[in-house]
Design brief:
6 strands, 3 helices, about 170 residues, four-stranded antiparallel sheet, globular, alpha+beta, about 30% helix
Length: about 170
Amino acid sequence: MRNILGYIIFLTIASCQISQQATQYEKRIGDIAFDPQSDNKNFELCYPNAIQQYFVFTSDKSFADYKPYIDSVFFASFRSIPLKESGLIRIRFIVNCKGETDRFRLLAMNWQYEPIRFNKRITTQLLFIIKSIKIWQVQVINERPVDYYQYLIFKISNGQLIEILP
């Protein structure tokens, strides 16, 4: 009987700890939570509980049509930094239903996909350029504009921008 009571107490404590931990996570894997240190408090989402992932859209054609513009902005604006820094920099962000952006998050890795830190002269420049694009494409599902996640991956070789994906 004593062992059963101890087991019940253990399960009760464990379940309380699990429920406390669960509240620390996003609603969905990959959600970008608001960060008052870096995000614009005036950025408004039209559907904050339904931000669409980029893979939801049935056709990449709409972004493919927009991609030449993105490339032209970055390749015209980015100034190479003579450093021996190479790898990939992913910037992920939210585009609201009006085509406005915020909640930029950066992830950098070397060619072996190991996390690294690029020189701030490179990352700051990329963030500045991406934020300078004021209107992004509005995506529509069932004839309704939606909020969605977007990302760009920058291939950097020796401080030079060589390609932008997707």
